[in-house]
Amino acid sequence: MATEQELSAFLKGVEKRAFKRSVFHVRDDEAALDIVQDSMLKLAQHYGDKPANELPMLFQRILSNSTLDWFRRQKTQKAVFTHFSDLESSADTDGDFDWVETYATNNDEAAASNAESLTERKQTLLSIEKEIQELPARQREAFLMRYWEEMDVAETAAAMGCSEGSVKTHCFRAIQTLSKALKAKGIEL
User: Fold this and answer.
1) Smallest Cα–Cα separation from 26: which of 80, 73, 70, 61?
2) Angle, nearest 10°, between helix axes 153-160 and 164-184?
3) What does the alpha-carbon distance between residue 68 and residue 155 come to, in Å, rounded to a whole number?
4) Is-above-0.90 flag for pTM?
5) Which of 47, 102, 108, 179 has its CA 20 to 30 A from that of 127?
6) End-to-end CA distance of the chain
7) 3-state class of 72 per DSSP?
8) Over the Cα atoms of the chain, what is R_g?
9) Contact 189/131 with Cβ under 8 angstroms?
10) How many CA atoms lie within 13 A of 109 on its CB side?
11) What are the angstrom distances between the C-alpha of 71 and each of 28, 35, 62, 75, 165?
12) 3-state helix, strand, coil in the chain (%, to 5)
């Protein structure tokens, strides 16, 4: 059983990544914040008594379902879009993020202080984010869970409600698409 402190520490540790993941999906900062907050509340209310090691998987599944629910509500309300890939960016992606904190690493503090290096890294990451947003919905979801959330194939499959083979296929296609698009822009990873 997770203690209140364990639940609080888990939610604090996952909030920024969950928000960024939601922004990738809904492309609206306010909606993403609502989705993450609702997901955190659902986890605390309905699954707060679960063991601490089960919280990450439960939260990922709740976040995915909350995102899908948001899209269903938007479709019902005659929204402009019906698919993830039809979305247009309506928000400034760097509005609430501290770029220095996000892109500076402990091993590379000297480079982070260099304005030119920081700007170049920011532009590269913005290009990567733009290409991630262009991925088909299931590829983007699998890619973000595997490489952003660092979930293994089985966890990703459980969270997405599909087979492990499907996760591998979605990830492979996402990586191929991203690699091709970024190479075309002169970005080698």
Assistant:
1) 70
2) 100
3) 18
4) no
5) 108
6) 41
7) helix
8) 17
9) no
10) 1
11) 12, 11, 14, 6, 26
12) 75, 0, 25
pLDDT category of residue 1 using cuts at 50, 70 and 90: confident
Look at residues 25, 182, 175, 180 and name the one whose alpha carbon lies nearest to residue 89. Answer: 25
* Amino acid identity at 32: A
Instruction: Please give the Cα distance from 58 to 65 (Å, whole number).
Output: 11
**DSSP 3-state of 87:** coil
Of 124, 132, 140, whose CA–CA distance to 178 is shortest?
Answer: 132
**Can you tell me whether residue 172 is helix, strand or coil?**
helix
d(CA 3, CA 6): 5
- What is residue 135's DSSP assignment? S
The single-letter DSSP state of residue 144 is I
**DSSP letter for each residue of 89-108:** --S-TTTT--HHHHH--GGG
Could you read off the pLDDT of 131-179 as tens digits, one per residue?
A: 888 899 899 989 888 888 888 899 899 989 999 999 999 999 998 998 8
Decide if pLDDT at 84 tops 50. no
Please give the structure tokens belonging to residue 67. Answer: 């995102």
Handedness of CA 67, 73, 75, 81 (dihedral sign): negative
SS3 (DSSP) at 76 = helix
Q: Please, what is the Cα angle at 46 between 44 and 52, to 5 degrees?
A: 60
